Batch of 3 targets.
Target 1
Amino acid sequence: MPPGEPLVRPDWIVQNLDIIGQRLAEHLGMTATAVSVGFLISFVLALVIRRRRTLTAAVIGTAGILYAIPSLALFAFLIPFTGISFLTAEIALVSYTLLILVRNILLGLDSVPGDVLEAANGMGYTSRQRLWRVELPIALPIIVAGLRIATVTTIGLVTVTSLIGQGGLGYLIVVVGINGFFPTATYVGALLSVALAVAADTLLLAIQRRLTPWSRARGATT
Amino acid sequence: MDQLTAVSQPQPAQAPDEVRLEGLRKTFGDVVAVAGVDLEVREGEFFSLLGPSGCGKTTCLRMIAGFEEPSAGRIVLHGQDVAGLPAYERDVNTVFQDYALFPHMTVGANTAVVPRLLRWPEARIRERVDELLDLVGLDPAAYRDRYPAELSGGERQRVGVARALAADPPVMLMDEPFGAVDPIRRDRLQNEFLRLQARVRKTIVFVTHDVDEAIKMADRIAILQRGGVLAQYDTPDAILAHPANEFVERFVGADRGLKRLSLARVRDLELIEPVIVQAGADRTDASGDLRSSSVDFALLVDRGGRPLGWIRESDLDGQGPINPEQAMPGANLLEPETTLRDALSAMLASSVQLGVVVDERERVLGLVSVDQISEVLQSGLLPVRTDAPG
């Protein structure tokens, strides 16, 4: 840090609001893309596992290994194939969501009581109707809990992708702030990243509460 | 057959079999859960599968419902062999032990599941839901939009019944339907359900491990013993009077004599003519009446004919009007609907072992004695199995 450089320079923030906003939007976009794609893949994987339980160990094991690979190493593996690109960043981000999402979707679906499933069968739901009208609604709180963890984790990880030229707010933190010896940018990026995580988490929780009024309906008389 | 003739000849004994099990057997690996059960359930009958845990009663019910495939034997529902038929095509509906309501649906939506799947028009569904909630004793306006988590155990049970009745299945299968409620509420729910059954007249097969519940509710009972063996299959009274084997005898309990008494009611006995006296009446007249009667006490009543107490023969010695102060208070008032068990217990607890049977305005209809009830126990079967129980 150059001597005499203050920790925060409000004038820089005011002058660069457009760049900050742009990076925030990029951060949000990368997160949304990763979580959405991750969710779709996880959903399909979970349904496949439900059909063939023997695949559980293989799928969860693979997702666990992906989750354990350090992000820098994963970039290094991917760059020969997909270059220093948005795609490389997203592949890494998506692979980190799989473990949490597959596990929670399975947990959610397994939380549906057996006699509720039998009641649904006995009443004549087809297996597709049963999935969409009974199992998924009942599983929703647990699935959304997984989505919240995946989203918050991804928002943190996006900053690391600044090392391969992406990064959203990570660009401010690493490239401008650390590499450029300019602490103001690091603070702005970090604070916004945290704020984004809190906001996304709160929003998802609010959506879940809205969709599952029954899960808060308590106060039975017996 | 001519429909009018069918209606004008209500002969339950000849009603067609609604559910017939032929050599029904189920094994899980080496374990025999149900060992070849044969039985028939008649149309409109309240039939109980009774037995200790692990006797295969629930497995039987699950096979009838279509949730479990028999290892051998046949299930015939309404004349049709249902082998391989999925649960929802079986014209039966199940009320589960803990009701298995859909937690994410309101009471109204839970009740409407089957009508919705059958694509009834929305207006008719709404009408049917309200009608059903009403039928099970839940005010539609208050309950329609509530979620199962907001209900008590008893309320959930009713929603479970309403949901099972929605598509008007001829046969209802119930797995310990009153098991998840506390004893006091259970008794009320049972009575309510009996009244409901008197209105809807479904064929009901219900599983229970509770002897008293089966006796109270069922027209006929099949008792299963460990290993899924059918031990006895008869009316509650016949089972209590003549247990088929040692297992049944032990299972129904040492107090089976007393239990039988809850099957018959005071109105089934021939009432004893009482000697009725009023305060101020002449002693000699009363004394003469009492001597020529089979009872030892005269019943003192007020001007409206309501019982006040008992007068001993010795209190009638001498002359002059009867002194109401001499009466022994505490006449046991019984109603024609009182079970013999309750009547006996009331009579044994008081000094004069007679019960006064009164109508709803407390006017005396006649007397019953402890001796009469003990005669009932010693004779073969009970006087009558009363019409609609409860």
Target 2
Amino acid sequence: MAELSVADAERFVYRECRLLDERRLDEWLALFSEDGIYWLPASDNADPEREPSLIYDDSLQRTKRVHQLLREGHLAQMPPSRTVHLVSNVEVEETEEPDTALIRCTMLVTELRPGDHMGTQYPLGSQRLLAGRCEYALRRDADEWLIAQKKVQLIDRDLPIYNLTFIV
Amino acid sequence: MLETTHVVDSGGLVKETATEFSVDAHVYTDAATFDVEMRRVFHHSWVYVAHESEIPNPGDYRTSAVGRTPVIVTRAQDGDIHVLVNTCRHRGAMVCREERGNAQFFRCPYHGWTYRNDGRLALVPDVARYPADWVEQIGGLIAAPRVSSLYGMIFARFSDDGEDLESYLGAMKQYVDLWFSHSPSRSLRVLPPYRALYPGNWKLQVENSTDGHHARFVHESAIRTMEHFGTRNRQAGWAGGTHGFDYGHGILERPRDDIPPEVQPQFDELRALLTETYGQEETDRIFVRRQITLFPNFHLMEFKFRLVQPITVDQSIIYEFPVQLDGVPDHVNEGALRRVMKEISISSGSAVSGFVNADDLEVFARVQTGLTGWPDQRVQFARGLEHEQEAPSGEWIGEGTDELPQRSFYREWRRLMYGQGHGQGPLL
């Protein structure tokens, strides 16, 4: 079976971005393998089990995160963020193990929490940019590629950031 | 930032009567008040700047701050710790740009003035062109005149006057002892911090760290999520308590009712280890969840330090340093760390992306804009005011949802801003 092409990789990542931008988070959860990890490191070369990360979610944590976002009224997402995920510089790297693939790309996320309150409810209505380099470690399960790890290295990962309660 | 009226001095900023305790909105929104408190509060208190485990070896240093004053915390060649203002005595450039490192000297990039890591001037290029003895008079980087350590926590004080660290802590000291007694050797090391930014005044997080009343509202979605997934191990019982102290310190005590089931064995093991070390009775006192405010901006939380750093009147940073206990097995530390890093407990995860603390920051943003938009507001802290009990130990005791720690904070804040000892005019 053919390995992952750059066009396949783009299709995969674009779809993930669309699910996030449309807040279809239950479908987003299904992109991951059972042992998949969603990881935003807070520094370079840190062991995520032993040092803080911005986010280091296994399946249960990820499911809780989505549950709180969609079903329990997470205050920091009331109103929820609107996002546009823009992906570029997509590369596919050779991997040694069969049925695995590694996608590298860059990501620019434009985010705002809507609400026009005549400028009195900062930071509502205030748009910001998050930039990062992404790595998707994929694993093939039957005919489907699943995310074994999504890692986003934000350029401001080791600086104080406000409110990352939406999915990057 | 919106324009607000400058109100710096009048006695109405913090008002206390038998039935009222309230704080003027400008205390949170007024830039001039902020500038004054950076000097009167932060330079006249013992301020946490670093932990000794971050600078274990001679030459180690890290940058930090006392209010808005940037400092370098150094360990000199003789092992002594110095807290140095990170500003060249010549033309005022910052001499150190690294967050941490190891250096015997700091060299100003502007004209090459070079300082030893104890702050003394080592070299001034072309020194003969300066007036005679002038360089000797300058001496070196400005050093905090008083530096004291307790359990590895390094505190600096920029004023020569006032109480030493032990007197400053007073009756609080015994609770700091209990907090550190989670390590059988009463020592620990800190990990790299979580960092979060929020658009609100620094005092909003300080107040919140000992607020026992907000969780069921602000954290409702987190609690419901925890219950939905069965990851909360709640036991009925004690509802907690609050303590207030002289010099602005406070405590919120809570039961450890939310230890995730998968780390319960590590917590049971820690408790057994402490019982061996201290005995049953003392362990019962130690093994309580205490959220401690050390005035003005430092907290001992559940297996982490929390430092609130003021940036502007309406911008602040939170640093949270998970701690690792000395004298316990690695897997116990892993359990404690897991509780801090990953679990959906009240202390979970980072304030920027966690399930819990991110909602506090959302509320701080709402308070900041609320107070900016209605500067006539008085912020109310009267909950439990009529029930404060003074204990013989020199502290005040309230119920778990009382606003007692917040009142202690603002009594000290008022004293430093315009109370006794500051009657000789502005300290700006």
Target 3
Amino acid sequence: MVTIRVLGACCSRCEELEKMCFNVLAENNIDADIQKISDMKIIAGYGVMSTPGLVINDKVYCSGKLPTKSTLIHWIMKNNI
Amino acid sequence: MDDNNKKFYYYLLFIPALIVIYFNLEWIANGIVYSLFNLDPQAPFTAAIYFFIYEVPKVLILLIIIVFFIGIIRSFFSPEKTRKKLEGKPLFLGNVLASMLGIVTPFCSCSAVPLFIGFVEAGIPLGVTFSFLIAAPMINEIAVILLFGLFGWKTALIYVSTGLIIAITAGFVIGKLKLERFVADWVYEIKSSGTELPEEKMKFPDRLSYGFAAVKDIVSKVWLYVVIGIAVGAGVHGYVPENFMASIMGKSVWWSVPVSVLIGIPLYSNAAGIIPIVQALLEKGASLGTALAFMMAVIGLSLPEAIILKKVLKLPLLFIFFGVVGVGIIIVGYIFNFIY
């Protein structure tokens, strides 16, 4: 199962990233453990300096911006083994 | 690259259209106010309405175009790259560099905490980190270009250079005071996994899409502030008597600068919303130094940011941070009132 962590505290883009993840998971019938993390200690622990950040299977994939949907699908698929 | 992004080339066509509208706004506003509604040119209400109808599209168009081009510039920077450039720089040079990078690095204040931690962890001195944290909100690129568009290049240049001077000296002073003990203890305990993102190769259409994303993101967030700011500005423009502000915010009133700064701290707006108000205040006799100090306090010293930073800074450091920046802004206000 893929584990996805959406890192973000207060901005609208973080919510948008979470929504995008949910959509990709639903559209592709992927079972995932997905959580939004707003605890700054954990966010900083991933070495992410700007939100929104995206962590898939413990690896940071992006920080400070929204990926395009096709990129997001690619990342999630790659980790869904 | 996303093939999708190629469609953004077509969006570029909107820019000349906006520019054409921008240069015909006076004609449009005249048409609406005097021909369509036939309002009395002498009435204060007409002056206020005209101000509103002329300024709202003007500022919004400026904003869209500015945010777009700044978005493209920002796509070349990131907090990670900025951190790399600042690592190992000595105090003063570090402060100068951090202040300048603070202007162009994409950064929203909700990321202030992870960014702060990231800098501390990389061993960047506290003073240099503060130069960045002061410059980033205070020298707001949107404010720079709006000032340029509404008041001319001199005011814009003055705003940038004074902002830089405050960020550099305040950071330098904080660095010299050796305040590391006032950083929340848990900050030093964090060991990040240190994963470095591979650097992405962005092609031009990707940067265009970054610019358009910035427009969508920022304009959707600030347009309401702009409209409210212009409405307040319009009220001042129409109803406040000429020179009324001179007695409160004029340069002969010695306390006007510190009081403007104190009033500015709890007020929270972004640059785009505050500038129409400043414009109206200036028109009614407020002096440039006082108005500028007010604007910098509203943009650069904000309570929400303080609350966010409270998580990583103990109270004494938070007060010193606000104090040093506040005093810097007051000094700049006095200097301007003295020069002009």
